Amino acid sequence: MARYLxxxxxxxxxxxxxxxxxxxxxxxxxxxxPASYMLGLNASPETVDALRxxxxxxxxxxxxxxxxxxGMAQGDFGLSYTxxxxxxxxxxxxxxxxxxxxxxxxxxSALVAFPAGLLxxxxxxxxADTAVMGATQLGISLPNFWFAMLLVLVFALHWRIxxxxxxxxxxxxxxxxxxALTLPAIALALPxxxxxxxxxxSALIETEGQDYIRTARAKGLTRTQTMIRHALRNxxxxxxxxxxxxxxxLLAGAIIIENVFYLPGLGRLIFxxxxxxxxxxxxxxxxxxxxxxxLVTFLVDLAYALIDPRLRRRA
Length: 315
Description:
- The chain has 315 residues and is mainly α.
- It has a single domain (88-314), classed as MetI-like fold (Orthogonal Bundle).
- Helix content is 78%, strand content 0%.
- It has 15 helices and no strands.
- Helix 9 runs antiparallel to helix 10 (223-234).
- The longest helix is centred in the N-terminal third of the chain and has 36 residues, at 87-122.
């Protein structure tokens, strides 16, 4: 197991190094002069030179890359050109919204998907299976931003149960914060729950053909009991893969939903930084999101080993 952990951590470190090199090349080297891009076409040469000095762009590319990596290792992500504050502070503020929103949406997705997937697999070929698969197809097809606006129309404007947008902050209480995140979380969870339910159903049906499942049925267990007690754990590996991918998407890919509900999250921060040409924020936030995705993948790999003893013995 220790060897398995070492190999996975080495893979994580190499992935981070490769991702940081690609991000640095794409943002600071390939497009040309970052200072000219940030200031626009009408900037004077003196202003561009001053910004180049401020950002340290006169140094060689390898030296700038090493300085950037060393700064991130110490928690220094630079100073935002637009907001004139440290990028680490901006990210911390936006994570207070994006991280709870991602966890909330992922929890709602699992809460819907697991019963639906189990029901569809246990009633394969019957009316319940057809209904669940039809509902998941609809959930995948509906654009989440359209569904989000429908939720606002019904639950915020008509029934006035939840706020239509904005975030009051956690200082106003957990209840108020969760109420502000409920409609965005539902809008994000709908397509993710549909995908997860379909994957779970397929994994359970594939597992159902194994010998130990037939043995359990021969001992008198019903199909539903066999699914829950024996098949579910062995079908969790593809499900965990989808859960990890969904969390990464929900953390970084909720730009449209955050703009629909005016939520000050990471997705909206990246969108604003791109429109404002704040390459320092873009570079740092993208690197943080890449680290989050790789870390989640690493944790999913560890969960594989915990669920499947064969992976531990093989390692």
